[in-house]
Amino acid sequence: MSRIGKQPIPIPSGVEVSVDGTVVRVKGPKGELSLDHHPAVGIEVDDDPSQLRVTRPDDSRTSRSLHGLTRSLINNMVVGVVTPFERQLEIHGVGYQAILEGNALNLSVGFSNTVRLVLPEGVECTLASPTMVKISGCDKQAVGQFAADIRAVRPPEPYKGKGIRYRDEFVRRKQGKAFVGAGE
Q: Could you give the CA distance from residue 137 to residue 144 in angstroms, rounded to a whole number?
């Protein structure tokens, strides 16, 4: 039995959960999310302690793998509508910066043109400084994907450390080539 899948999902006050067939909708103070889960797993709502349970019909390989996955996805939805998920990125390099214009993030990271990334729906972006980008939203997958898209524009390189990195990311530096005298 899945250790994650058999744990109940607590529903905090102020969060409404509705199950309609294979669609689960979660509505809270920070937003609304929905998930169309696989029909091989079932979802039961207990009103007394206000929690959700994810069940599976049998012990087949597919049911076992979907059991914990579905529970984790629904738990992330419940957590996200109460406290939004966030990722922070740092931009390192001389002249490298980010500019927020309306619904788009413009990155000047050493290319001849600025790179324009349109913010997905449900994702907010704020700039503490031109080199600090903070992404937040109630959908964990959308926040993480947009942060990965920003980092993919100019990943940190190992010689000088220039590029875009996550705030808690450690970039392992390389020494580079040593200069050898011309007389040899």
A: 10
pTM for the complete prediction? 0.88
* Tens digits of residue pLDDT in 123-143: 999 999 999 999 999 999 999
Pairing state between β 42-46 and 51-55: antiparallel
pLDDT tens figures, 83-94: 999 999 999 999
DSSP state string for the chain: --TTTTS-EE--TT-EEEEETTEEEEEETTEEEEEE--TTSEEEEETTTTEEEEE-SS--HHHHHHHHHHHHHHHHHHHHTTS-EEEEEEEESTT-EEEEETTEEEEESSSSS-EEEEPPTTEEEEEEETTEEEEEES-HHHHHHHHHHHHHHSPPPTTT--EEEETT--PPPP--PPP--TT-
Q: Cα separation of 146 and 115, whole Å?
A: 14
Q: Is the dihedral of CA 23, 24, 26, 27 positive or negative?
A: positive
Domains of the chain, with CATH numbers? 9-80 (3.90.930.12), 85-166 (3.90.930.12)
Confidence bin at 153 (pLDDT 50/70/90): very high
Neighbours of 140 (CB within 10 A): 19
Report the pLDDT value the prediction gives residue 75, as an integer from 0 to 100: 95
